Amino acid sequence: MRKKWKAIVLAGIGLLVAIQLIPVRRTNPPVTGDLKTPPEVRRILGASCYDCHSDETHWPFYCYVAPVSWFVVHDVHEGRGRVNFSQWNAYPESAREFLRNNVYKQVSEGEMPPWPYRLLHPSARVTAAALDVLKQWAGPAPAPGDERNPGDGDRRDR
Ligand code: HEC
């Protein structure tokens, strides 16, 4: 019986080591059109959103440890696909307006930053005062079904 457990534990360790070898796309492409905003807005977005919605992601140590790294990298790529503040200038004006409005909506509803991220980065939580600043900049939440949404597509198609 003891032998069996030893084999299981060893196999588990082997698997953990092996999955570290799977390549993970931790990229930071060049910033081509960073969002221009008043500095207080930039500070809030930089502190709370840029890890997933920019090309200036800060990759802490756990982003190098599978399987955690898989989830983090997936979130960053999905986040950039939805809105990438580093390529803001490439969005048409209508999409920018929608995204700005949606920034306020997502944050005021507690959707962004996502809760696991808030747990790991308490300083990324958006305070009531910061939310006010975002509201001034971002405007009202968009109506459901708003067709200005650039969606989760690939920006290069547009
Ligand atoms: C841990 C990564 C992460 C952080 C940090 C983060 N987001 Fe997101 N965000 C995502 C992901 C993943 C999605 C797409 C899936 C979803 O909606 O949950 C998303 C979607 C969005 C969308 C929807 C875009 C659309 O399609 O309309 C907006 C707006 C947004 N985020 C704004 C923000 C803002 C503002 C912050 C900072 C206050 C922030 N996010 C912080 C990962 C993140």
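^ heme C complex. The chain has a mean pLDDT of 91. The pocket of heme C is lined by residues 48-49, 51-53, 75, 78-79, 82-83, 99, 102-103, 106-107, 112-114, 117, 126, 149, 152 (CB under 6 Å).
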